[in-house]
Structure to design on (900 residues):
């Protein structure tokens, strides 16, 4: 088992290198190079200025050289500077990260909690009204576009009822202190978190429910009941514990999404997160930032997959890799 | 070479910047009857009775990369010119300049401009200080020129700086600037002055903190910038103009990338105003006002917002020697001009927020107020018939095997535009010209020739965009001069028309090099006449300049070229006590 894990970890390295090459190459192939934002008829920059900038950023070097330079920089901690703002990429990313993690972390936590509660209950009360209603709602949530849902929530709770603020993370006019600041922040997060949780709650609930149904039909559950254990212990202690194995692995695989944020939600609610940074950098052809984000995302995806595999092996003693 | 600064004003997806003096008018509209006019009269409600203090909130739709206009190519940095950075000369809605940081406007009469037109003397007002207390001197002016011209720096200066040959600091307040050629745009210099004491060298790099958040002399100071979130402006306690100004304590600029959210937020009262509104927005605000929403909409007389143009490709796919098979025929151009129902567009789509415009130079110096021909589809059809364009069986006219079928392109994503595009398409169908709408992202249209930009490479038939709003026409006229047409030899060139006319070229040169104002205006008007007669491009409508803000914001003056977005106005803003 250990050798399996070590092998997988070692395999991750060439995988990541391969991903970096592909990502780098793909970006180079997109129309409009990095200077597109600064050149063309609209810009004030003259041809000489553009040529100078290209030289400074090493854009005239052959592609493989640019790649190696970039890779070398990454490994030594120099992630380059944004073409758009001139600030270090690391700074740009870490500035946006907390907001994203707050948003996605909260909605992830909320989704998992809700999914567990509703999913387990629906499975236990299989074929009852609760089950049907929750299934119906889950499908509705899956079918609803988050963009539309977000705007609807805004319209109802912010514009019509004026209960909640419409954008940002904090009040723009007054600076609150202490508990008021906490409340203010919470108020601003309600709607975005609701929107973001929508889709993941729906799918996670279905997943939990079907996994529970599977497990509850097993023999050992009947044995546990037969032994006189209280129903709650049977369902939660034996049922959920086993049912949660695949759910945990699914959850782990969702970790990279926590980082990338949610562009649509961030755009509607004006939140400065990673998703928006990614899209804006793509529009502006801000290569260093784009490459930085993509690299982190790739590392996270590979690691998450690795972690999920290992975790699965640990949680389920029936599984063993050779 | 003077680069044409194109600014697609209404399209917020365009990250390009327009220098506010020469372009970049926020699009506004004519106020509905019930709106309050705060404009030319320059009156403000209540005078100094407002509660001092408070923080205004502004929504910004496109966040720039850096906030210093000298180093930015994006329009969002113009926000800095509204609050933090002040210009030497202030432009009024008709294009006239007034001294602001300058003591007086240099002219030939007062000796500020030498007889040969090559030397201009700029004098600073006394007592102007930077927000950190340092005095503003002619050294700063000279430094600004040096930075603009430094080949190793990252500055993206106005084209006028390229004509400066040398500068001489005469005394603390006076700078003599010598140009290599007579430069009629000499008042366009120094819209932003750089503080010499904040820099180590003239080769300023893009990551310089001054490029990101510049120091200025204006009523507000850039205090903080949380990228993607908000920009915080604080009161300049050492503001030189008046100890009472600014009236506000600060301004929070919230970055709201989704235009619809910003507009709804404004109507809802979340924001005091938005940088910036477009014509479609104003129509919506007007309707919301009728439903009871709180908003001030004000119009600026003497001022016209930008014009929406149909750019016609006069070449065949960019080949300068072959005229366009369809649009090369003046009869076709005339027919298109007469065939468009402009009134329908203004009344039905824009809800009245637009006016008719027929001239090339419709704003600023040398402006003519020509009206386009009225909607006359019968005349259009007649013109086409007489020129030999016969109606085919499919309803599309033909001549010599060539079908009158054209691509019609503009920037995608603007719903208002999409509406009147369809009106134009229908109008053309009525006279037998087929238009195929193929909208594209703004990059695709405006990229340079090397990047395959449609306009630059001549790969278009009819394109539509807004342009032409300048206090000084020189840069605008240049776009249609032969020498700017892009080609192998001139890859950096740019043309909306790929049209070439010797007489026009001569007139354009005259206008670009003559200092004498009357001669210039003559040349400009002649060039305009040629352009309009040839129907090089077809104007559709012009928006009247107007602004909208929340009534809690008071003392908002609009009587400037930049409207409310200038320190002359923003220093006076106050929040009413309600």
């Amino acid at each position: 088992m250990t050798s399996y894990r070590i092998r997988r970890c070692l395999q991750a390295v060439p995988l990541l290198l391969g991903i970096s090459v592909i990502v780098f190459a793909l970006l180079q192939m997109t129309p409009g190079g990095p200077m597109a934002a600064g050149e063309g008829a609209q810009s004030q920059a003259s041809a000489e200025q553009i040529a100078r900038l290209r030289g400074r950023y090493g854009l005239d070097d052959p592609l493989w050289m640019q790649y190696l330079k970039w890779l070398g920089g990454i490994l030594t901690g120099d992630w380059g500077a944004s073409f758009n703002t001139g600030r270090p990429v690391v700074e740009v990313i870490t500035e946006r990260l907390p907001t994203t993690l707050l948003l996605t972390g909260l909605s992830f936590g909320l989704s998992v909690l809700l999914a567990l509660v509703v999913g387990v209950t629906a499975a236990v009360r299989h074929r009852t009204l609760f089950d049907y209603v929750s299934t119906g709602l889950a499908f509705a949530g899956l079918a609803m576009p988050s963009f539309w849902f977000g705007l609807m929530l805004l319209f109802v709770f912010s514009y019509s009822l004026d209960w909640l603020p419409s954008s940002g993370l904090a009040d723009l006019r007054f600076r609150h202190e202490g508990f008021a600041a906490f409340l203010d922040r919470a108020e601003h997060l309600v709607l975005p978190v609701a929107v973001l949780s929508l889709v993941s709650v729906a799918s996670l609930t279905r997943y939990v429910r079907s996994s529970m149904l599977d497990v509850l039909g097993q023999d050992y559950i009947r044995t546990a009941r037969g032994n006189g254990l209280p129903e709650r212990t049977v369902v939660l202690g034996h049922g959920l514990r086993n049912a949660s194995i695949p759910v945990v692995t699914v959850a782990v695989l969702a970790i990279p999404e926590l980082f990338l944020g949610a562009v649509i939600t961030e755009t509607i609610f004006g939140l400065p997160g990673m998703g928006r940074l990614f899209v804006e950098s793509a529009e502006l052809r801000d290569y260093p930032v784009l490459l930085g984000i993509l690299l982190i995302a790739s590392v996270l995806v590979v690691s998450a997959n690795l972690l999920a595999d290992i975790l699965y092996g640990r949680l389920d003693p029936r599984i063993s890799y050779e | 070479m003077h680069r044409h600064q194109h600014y697609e004003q209404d399209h917020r997806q365009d990250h390009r910047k327009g220098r506010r003096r020469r372009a970049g008018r926020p699009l506004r509209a004519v106020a509905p009857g019930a709106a309050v006019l705060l404009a030319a009269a320059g009156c403000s409600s209540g005078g100094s009775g407002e509660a001092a203090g408070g923080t205004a909130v502004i929504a910004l739709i496109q966040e720039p990369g850096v906030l210093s206009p000298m180093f930015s190519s994006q329009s969002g940095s113009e926000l800095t010119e509204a609050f933090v950075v002040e210009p030497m000369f202030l432009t009024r809605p008709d294009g006239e300049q007034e001294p602001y940081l300058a003591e007086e406007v240099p002219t030939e009469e007062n000796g500020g401009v030498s007889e040969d037109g090559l030397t201009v003397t700029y004098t600073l007002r006394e007592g102007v200080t930077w927000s950190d207390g340092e005095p503003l001197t002619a050294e700063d002016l000279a430094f600004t020129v040096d930075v603009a011209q430094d080949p190793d720096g990252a500055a993206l200066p106005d084209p006028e700086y390229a004509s400066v040959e040398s500068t001489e600091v005469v005394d603390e307040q006076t700078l003599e600037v010598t140009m290599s050629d007579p430069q009629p745009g000499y008042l366009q210099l120094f819209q932003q002055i750089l503080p010499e004491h904040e820099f180590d060298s003239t080769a300023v790099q893009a990551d310089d903190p001054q490029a990101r958040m510049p120091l200025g002399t204006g009523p507000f100071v850039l205090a903080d910038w949380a990228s993607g979130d908000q920009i915080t402006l604080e009161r300049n306690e050492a503001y030189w103009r008046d100890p009472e100004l600014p009236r506000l304590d600060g301004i929070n600029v919230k970055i709201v990338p989704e235009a619809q959210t910003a507009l709804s937020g404004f109507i809802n009262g979340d924001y005091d105003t938005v940088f910036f509104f477009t014509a479609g927005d104003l129509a919506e605000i007007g309707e919301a006002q009728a439903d009871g929403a709180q908003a001030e909409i004000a119009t600026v007389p003497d001022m016209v917002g930008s014009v929406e143009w149909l750019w016609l490709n006069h070449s065949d796919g960019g080949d300068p020697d072959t005229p366009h098979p369809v649009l090369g025929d003046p009869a076709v151009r005339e027919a298109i001009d007469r065939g468009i129902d402009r009134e329908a567009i203004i009344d039905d789509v824009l809800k009245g927020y637009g006016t008719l415009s027929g001239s090339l130079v419709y704003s600023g110096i040398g402006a003519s107020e020509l009206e386009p021909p009225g909607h006359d589809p019968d005349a259009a059809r007649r013109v086409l018939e007489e020129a030999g364009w016969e109606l085919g069986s499919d309803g599309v006219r033909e001549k010599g095997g060539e079908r009158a079928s054209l691509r019609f392109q503009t920037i995608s994503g603007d719903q208002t535009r999409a509406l009147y595009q369809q009106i134009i398409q229908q109008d053309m169908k009525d006279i037998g010209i087929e238009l195929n709408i193929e909208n594209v992202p703004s990059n695709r249209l405006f990229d340079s020739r090397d990047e395959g930009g449609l306009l630059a490479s001549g790969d278009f038939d009819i394109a539509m965009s807004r342009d032409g709003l300048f206090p000084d026409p020189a840069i605008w006229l240049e776009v249609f001069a032969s020498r700017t047409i892009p080609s192998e030899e001139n890859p950096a060139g740019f043309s909306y028309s790929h049209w070439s006319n010797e007489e026009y070229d001569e007139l354009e040169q005259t206008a670009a090099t003559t200092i004498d104002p009357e001669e210039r205006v003559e040349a400009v008007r002649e060039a305009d006449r040629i352009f309009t007669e040839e129907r090089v491009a077809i104007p559709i409508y012009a928006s009247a300049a107007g602004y909208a803000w929340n009534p809690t914001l008071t003392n908002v003056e609009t009587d400037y070229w930049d409207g409310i977005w200038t320190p002359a106005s923003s220093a006076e803003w106050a929040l009413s006590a309600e």
In short: Confidence is low (pLDDT under 50) at residues 36-45 of chain A. Chain A touches chain B through 53 residues (CB under 8 Å).
